[in-house]
Each structure stands twice: as structure tokens, then as C-alpha cells.
Amino acid sequence: MIDLLTGILILGGGGFCLIAAIGVVRFPDLYVRMHAATKAGTLGVGLALMAIVVNSGDLGTILRAIAALLFIFLTAPIGAHLLARAAYASGVKMWDGSAVDDLKDRYDFAAGTLEGVKPPSSAPAKQSDQ
User: Fold this and answer.
1) Sequence-ordered alpha helix ranges (H) in 27-112
2) For residues 8 and 26, what is the distance between their CA atoms, to the nearest angstrom?
3) Strands 113-114 and 107-108
4) CA-CA distances (angstroms) from residue 123 to 82, 111, 120, 126, 127?
5) In 23, 50, 86, 104, which residue has its Cα 20 to 30 A from 4's Cα atom?
6) pTM greater than the 0.90 cutoff
7) Beta bridge pairs of residue 113
8) pLDDT digits (tens, 9 = 90+) for 59-118
9) How far apart are CA 51 and CA 3, in angstroms?
10) Model confidence over 13-35: pLDDT tens digits?
């Protein structure tokens, strides 16, 4: 039974990784490609790591697989968000068929600021001497 569940998890993980790879090749722009790689790739790797957890009988291997799973689930979406934000700020254009660009009229490329968001001040905050 464990071998069957392990096989299903590995096939599912491989399938999602294949879908992510096809999405990276087929989708039209950086933002949609990054979405495919992050979402499907993370799920594929997560299923493969779960197969390791199910199949392994060693506590150390299980803990390392769970730690890797948590690391992937915490860092992949944040990394994709930061890369997309940097790409948008540097002027990478969206696909012409994109339906919505919420930042189009709000982002000032010259100043590198978003309307309604204050940039962080470089001066330290003053404390009162009361």
C-alpha cells in the first residue's frame, strides 16, 4: 500500500513539474511563465517530497523532507513576487492579450515609486526628549 501511494505521489509530482515546464515554454510573457513555474513547480516538488516522507522509514530523512517542503512553500511565492516586481519596475512589458494591469497608471517608472505608497525614509526617526 505504501509503494502504491509513493508511486502515485511521484507520478503526480512529475506531472505537475511537466506542466510547469510546458507552461514556461508555451506562455507568452515573463509574468505568466513565472506564475506557471512557481505554482505548478512548487506543487510538483511538494508531491515528490511527500513521496519521500511516505516511503522513508528514517526519522531524519522525514524531517529533512518536511523542512525542504516548508522552505519551498515559503520561499517560492515570495521569490516569484519579488522577481515580477523587479521586472515590472525595470519596464518589462506585459503580453498584449493581458486583461488587467493594475499598476499601469499608478507606477512612476522615473521615480521608481507606486502612487499611494510612501518610500522608506533614509533619515532615522527622531525621538522626543520628554
Assistant:
1) 30-55, 59-89
2) 26
3) antiparallel
4) 25, 19, 9, 9, 12
5) 23
6) no
7) 108
8) 999 999 999 999 999 999 999 989 988 888 888 888 888 777 777 777 776 676 777 666
9) 9
10) 999 999 999 999 999 988 889 98
Task: Take residue 91 and report the three cell numbers written for it.
Answer: 519596464
Integer Rg of the chain from CA: 21
Number of helical (H) and strand (E) elements in the chain, helices listed first: 3, 2
The DSSP letter of residue 117 is -
Residue 19, class by beta-carbon neighbours within 10 Å (0-12 exposed, 13-18 middle, 19+ buried)? Answer: middle
Report the alpha-carbon distance of residue 78 to residue 40 in Å, rounded.
15
- pLDDT of 84 reads 86
Question: Side chain identity at 118, as an amino acid letter?
Answer: K
As given in the structure block, the three cell numbers for residue 120 are 522608506
- Beta strands per DSSP E along 1-130: 107-108, 113-114
CA-closest candidate to residue 17, choices 36, 50, 44, 39: 44
**C-alpha to C-alpha distance for 8 and 15, rounded to whole angstroms:** 10
